Automatic annotation (TrEMBL):
This is MoaF N-terminal domain-containing protein. Residues 52-136 form the MoaF-like domain. It comes from the Bacteria. Gene3D superfamilies: 2.40.128.20.
Amino acid sequence: MKLKIRIPTVVIFAIFGAVAQPLSGEDTPKKKAVPNHVQQYLDSEHLMDGISFQYFYEDGSGLEIAFNEGKVRYEWVVGPRKGNKGEGIPYQSRSIGDDLYMVNWHEPKKPDFTSLIIDLKNKALYSTAILRYGTSAEMIHFKEASVKNVKRPSE
């Protein structure tokens, strides 16, 4: 009688043990490595998700910007850069006050690095960027803008 109980138990453990083993060789799925500069954005806070607005510089040029699912999308809508856009760019953010945020993102293909201080309470934005860094076209951007048409997730 004891032998009958042990055999099914051994068979069950053998089956579950085989199922639980990872696949070997080429059948094993391989993880694609994520570069450190991208992982930093994936691991960071995305406090602006669901928020979109327009902002305009004193020279009249302006952009539409939207934050969703940890990514930023922007398009220049007025001025000499009209039509220039970026989308699907991972961003990171930090709350630095009441409705006041620091945001940045990196576009290595351009290459650009942009930082914004966004004051939604006072409808102001401060931007700084190193555009086309490391190239002969490198530019430093350091400007103030007014914020218009803010849309939040609850609206």
